[in-house]
Amino acid sequence: MTTACKVCGNRVTEFLDLGRQPLSDAFLTPSDIEREFFYRLAVGHCESCTMVQLLEEVPRERMFHHDYPYYSSGSTTMRRHFEQTAQHFLETELTGPDPFAVEIGCNDGIMLKTISKAGVRHLGFEPSGGVAEVARSHGVNVRTDFFEEATAVEVRDEHGPADVIYAANTICHIPYLDSIFRGVDALLSDGGVFVFEDPYLGDIVRKTSFDQIYDEHFFFFTARSVRAAAERFGFELVDAQRLPVHGGEVRYTIARAGARQPSPAVDALLAEEADQRLTAPETLRSFAGAVATVRDDLVRLLRSLRAEGRRVVGYGATAKSATVTNFCGIDAELVSFVCDSTPAKQGRLTPGKHIPVKPPGAFSDPYPDYAVLFAWNHAEEIIAKEQGFREAGGRWILYVPTVRIV
C-alpha cells in the first residue's frame, strides 16, 4: 500500500502491518467494550525524505483528552532525566535577562517544575486536561491546548519570543509537522533553539522493539529525516544526542538556518545511518521479518507455559503493551492480568485484548511463576525493585530484542 508523506507529500511505501489495533491508552470498563475504537496499524517510509510514519492517522482528540492516563513522573528514572534536562537549559539557554521557555506536551509538569522553581518564565502546552491539572498543582503555567501555528502566534503576542521550545515524546505524536514548524518559526527567538527527543528508529530496528509502534507514535525519526524536515521550514539540525531512556531516543536540537554552528555529532549520526542503510527498503523488510519471529516465539512460549500449568502475569500496562498483546493475540488465557502502578488504569481492562489491570500489590499475592515485562524500557529499575519475585522463584519474560527468560 502507498500513501502520501505527511512531511513532503511524496510516496510512502508500507513495510510493516501490525494489524487491527485499539487506542493504546484506552483502558476500558466492561461497558466500554462495545464502543471500542480500532484502526489498522501499518508503517511505511517515504521514498523521498525517508521519514518513517504510520499510514493511518488516529484523530488526536481520541488519544489526548482529559482522562489521558500516562504520567511522566511515574518513573524514578524519568524524573531524574527531566530534572537534569531542565537544569541543562537553566545553565545554557535560559541565562539571559528575562528568559522564556515553552514545552510542547508538558504532561504533569515534571520538567517545567524545575524551571518554575528557578523563577524563569515558562509555559507548557498540554491538551490532556487531567495531567495538566497535576502540572498546575506543581506551580507550572499550563495552557490546556494543542501546540500549532495559531496557538503559537497567540503565545508570542502575549509573552514574547521563546528562548527554548522543548518537547519530550511529543513531536513524534503529531502528524501536522508543518504547523508545528510554522508555530516554532512564529514563537522562537532569533537565537533560540527547538529541542525535542523521541524514540529513535535506529534503536527500534536494532532491538526489534516493534512495541514502540502504536497510535500515539506517528513518526519514527532519524537524523536524516529530521534534518530534511527542518530544512523545509528554514531551520537547521545543529545537534543530535543519543539518550538511553525509553529504549533508545535521540534529542534533536534545531535552530534557525545559519544561527549556530552544527555539532560534529550531527554528521557522525548521519554517517552511521548511511553505513547501516537504516531506511533502505531491504533493511526495513528485514526488520518486519524479525518482528514476525518475535511474535511467533513469544506466543509459542506462553502457550507452552499454559500447557504446563504455569501462572503468567504481565508487568506494566504500558501503551506499548497494546501493540504486543493485539499483534500477538495475547489474552487473559495466556497472561492472567497485568499489574500497574497507575490508579487510572487499575480495575480496568487492557485495550483490545481486555486483560484485567490490577494494582502492584496483586503481583506478590501470591507471586506468579513468570511475568512478561511489558515495561521493558524500565527493566533495570523494575527488576531491582522486585527482588522478592526472583527470590520466590519467579522468572521474567522479555521479548526485546528477542524472546528470552531471565
TrEMBL record:
Q: Which InterPro entries would you find in this protein's record?
A: Methyltransf_Zn-bd_dom_put (IPR013630), Methyltransf_Zn-bd_dom_put_sf (IPR038576), MeTrfase_14 (IPR013691), SAM-dependent_MTases_sf (IPR029063)
Residue span, C-methyltransferase domain: 244-401
Q: Name one GO biological process term.
A: methylation
A GO term, aspect molecular function: methyltransferase activity
- Coiled-coil stretches noted in the UniProt entry, renumbered to this chain: none
Q: Which residues form the signal peptide?
A: none
The protein's matches in SUPFAM superfamilies, at most eight in alphabetical order, are given as:
S-adenosyl-L-methionine-dependent methyltransferases
> Which UniProt keywords are present, listed alphabetically?
Methyltransferase, Transferase
Domain spans labelled Methyltransferase putative zinc binding: 5-64
Q: What is this protein called?
A: Class I SAM-dependent methyltransferase
What is the organism field in this record? Saccharopolyspora thermophila
